[in-house]
């Protein structure tokens, strides 16, 4: 399936990343990203590379690499390989004009969800690729399917994918997904839901307040704290103390 030149290019990218490895970060990242047994990032491997440097590598190689080749990098056991692959995808997607190419990119993205399996991988890519595509093509069904998935990363991808909608002033999909998963047991969903509500409030505070007034007593504390972070302090305290 893969040709010798494919392996050569992938090896070149991996070697470029390897030269940027910092041993101290390689030791720290597994703790930061919770890779212990039973944790959300169980088994993930790290080289210890800073994100800005991964972006530079992506910028160097994104015009040279095909989706077939990128599949190899995105399926790597190493976190930084996968994140760099996603940065490459974003750069490719942002340059695309042809709808057929974008359709192919989205199919590729959805076919590789197994490897988009930590919060930074989700957050860095989903709204810039999937969220934008769904908004521009009225394909909210793709996000709804993810929001209804049993997999936490898919649910997070759905709600954060609505960031593109929020930036354009459309809030209903965000509210729909937050409400659907408001009782999710994991704090990574609480944070994602609260983050998107906060972003909604930054665009339209009335929309946030209306939503909070109907739902804040049902929200996990972390979600609420994220959602109200930018509100007036007196109003924040009213929500935190249940006075509304």
In short:
This protein has 244 residues and is mostly helical.
Give an account of the 3D structure.
The protein is mostly helical. The protein is globular. 68% of the residues lie in helices and 0% in strands.
Helix content: 55-70%
Strand-residue proportion: under 5%
Strand count: 0
Give the mean pLDDT.
95
Distance between the termini: 61 Å
Query: How many H/I helical runs?
Result: 16
Name a few traits of the molecule:
244 residues, mainly alpha, disordered N terminus
Topology at a glance:
Layout: H1 4-18, H2 23-32, H3 51-61, H4 67-74, H5 79-95, H6 99-111, H7 119-125, H8 127-137, H9 140-147, H10 152-161, H11 163-167, H12 172-180, H13 187-203, H14 205-215, H15 221-227, H16 233-240
Helix pairs in contact: 1-4, 3-5, 4-5, 5-7, 8-9, 8-10, 9-10, 10-12, 10-13, 12-13, 13-14, 13-15
């Amino acid at each position: 399936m893969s040709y010798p030149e494919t392996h050569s290019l992938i090896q070149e990218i991996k070697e470029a990343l390897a030269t940027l490895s910092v041993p101290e970060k390689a030791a720290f990242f597994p703790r930061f990203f919770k890779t212990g047994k039973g944790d959300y990032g169980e088994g993930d491997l790290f080289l210890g590379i800073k994100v800005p440097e991964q972006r530079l590598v992506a910028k160097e190689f994104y015009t040279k690499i095909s989706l077939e080749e990128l599949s190899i990098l995105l399926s790597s056991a190493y976190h930084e390989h996968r994140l760099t692959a996603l940065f490459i995808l974003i750069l490719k997607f942002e340059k695309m004009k042809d709808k057929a190419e974008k359709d192919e990119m989205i199919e590729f993205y959805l076919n590789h969800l197994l490897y988009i399996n930590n919060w930074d991988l989700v957050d860095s890519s989903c709204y810039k690729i999937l969220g934008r595509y769904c908004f521009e093509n009225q394909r909210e069904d793709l996000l709804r399917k993810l929001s209804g998935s049993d997999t936490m990363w898919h649910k997070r991808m759905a709600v954060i994918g609505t960031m593109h909608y929020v930036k354009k002033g459309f809030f209903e999909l965000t509210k729909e997904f937050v409400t659907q998963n408001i009782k999710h047991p994991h704090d990574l969903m609480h944070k994602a839901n609260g983050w998107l509500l906060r972003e909604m409030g930054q665009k339209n505070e009335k929309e946030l307040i209306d939503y909070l007034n109907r739902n804040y007593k049902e929200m996990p504390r972390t979600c609420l704290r994220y959602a109200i972070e930018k509100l007036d302090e007196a109003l924040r305290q009213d929500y935190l103390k249940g006075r509304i």
